[in-house]
Amino acid sequence: MSRWQSNPRGRLEQAAMDLFTERGFDQTTVADIAARAGLTERTFFRHFTDKREVLFQGGQYLEEQIVGALAAAPPTATPLAAVAVALTAAATMFDGEGRQERSRMRQHIIDANPELQEREVGKLARLGAALADGLRARGVPDPAARLAADIGIAVFYAAFEQWVRGDAGDMRALIDDCLDEVVKIAEGGR
């Protein structure tokens, strides 16, 4: 292939996803991915630090979206309402042609590999810590900041699980439904 062919990052992503699905994550090498994409290993490493990064590259962007929306929530919003604003704003990342199918493929790969599952849990923990820090910056004290952040992560994860494993294409609606469930549970008392 010509070295000037466009979208090397996209080609590498697609090649990696195809190979992870066909062979499994552990059986796929960076050399395999580069060869399938018609590129060099050096080109791969210009775009990704390692093959795991193909699956987790959006984590930083998701965190930025959520933390930015949290900071922009109305100053009078309760901690949970501010988290709700942040989560629904980030839901737009899941809109678009092919997003759900790609996310399904990604989740299938992660589910098949304990190391990747551990990294996914770590990503969610970092996101929760960033949410808690954002709430503290809004003046929310602990333990309320940590609890609201953890509830937010639980809501996000529950909504994502429904979205990626079901036919529902609207992540925002699923987040809203899960937030409503949290309110019902809290109103039920102990």
Describe it for me?
The chain is built from ten helices and no strands. It is an all-alpha fold. Helix 1 (8-23) crosses helix 2. The N and C termini lie far apart (64 Å). The model has no long low-confidence stretch (mean pLDDT 92).
Main features:
190 residues; elongated; mainly alpha; 10 helices; 72% helix
User: N- to C-terminal separation?
Assistant: 64 Å
DSSP strand count: 0
What is the helix fraction of residues, given as a range? Answer: over 70%
**CA radius of gyration:** 19 Å
> How many alpha or pi helices?
10
Order of helices and strands: HHHHHHHHHH
Give the CA-based shape.
elongated
Instruction: Give the uncertain stretches in residue-range form.
Output: none
Mean pLDDT, to the nearest integer, reads 92
Give the percentage of residues in beta strands.
under 5%
Output the structural class: mainly alpha
| Major sheet details | none
